[in-house]
Amino acid sequence: MKANHQDDDQTCNGLPSNSPFYPLNPDRVVFEDERVIAFYDRYPVSPGHTLVVAKQVTASHFDLSPDVRQQMWDAVAKVRELLQQLYQPDGFNIGLNDGAAAGQTIGHAHIHVIPRYAGDQADPRGGVRWIFPEKAKYW
């Protein structure tokens, strides 16, 4: 995982400078409240791919308080609604990578909201199950 920046009191759009996502271009921000910020992924896998990020910097989603975790999921719902209006996708993949073994490369808890479009994959069945291709196909 990417190392955190040195901790200090500076923020950028409410994101602390010790976040691996710092600095953040304000043009990428789509939602913000007192504990959560959401912004377009720098390396999107589809148009509208957005990250919902806790402002508290911790690697694991499960190291956040239950209140902050709930606020993140509330923000996911708001971001999904916004992306539905802006991009009109046909579906969404929503999830997180918790720990290096799960593919987490950024040491700051975040949830991916990935719009999906008809035809973006030849056969999208199984969705996130494809992290283990040999086990993905159950139908």
CATH class: Alpha Beta
Q: What would you call the structural class?
A: alpha+beta
Identify the CATH architecture: 2-Layer Sandwich
Q: Spans with pLDDT under 50 lasting ≥5 residues?
A: 1-9
Distance between the termini: 35 Å
CATH topology term: HIT family, subunit A
Order of helices and strands: EEEEEHEEH
Number of strands: 7
Report strand %.
15-25%
| Count of runs of 4 or more consecutive helical residues | 2
In CATH, the homologous superfamily goes by the name HIT-like
Shape descriptor:
globular
Which value, in Å, is the CA radius of gyration? Answer: 16 Å
Major sheet: arrangement of strands: 3-4-5-7-6
Overall helicity: 10-25%
Average the pLDDT over all residues and give the rounded result: 90
Number of structural domains: 1
Describe this structure in words.
- A hairpin with a 3-residue loop joins strand 3 and strand 4 (36-40).
- The chain starts with 10 loop residues before the first strand and ends with a helix.
- The strands form two sheets. Strands 3-4-5-7-6 form a five-stranded antiparallel β-sheet, covered by helices on one side. Strands 1-2 form a two-stranded antiparallel ribbon.
- By secondary structure, it is α+β, with helices and mostly antiparallel strands.
- Helix content is 19%, strand content 22%.
- It has one domain (11-120): 2-Layer Sandwich (HIT family, subunit A).
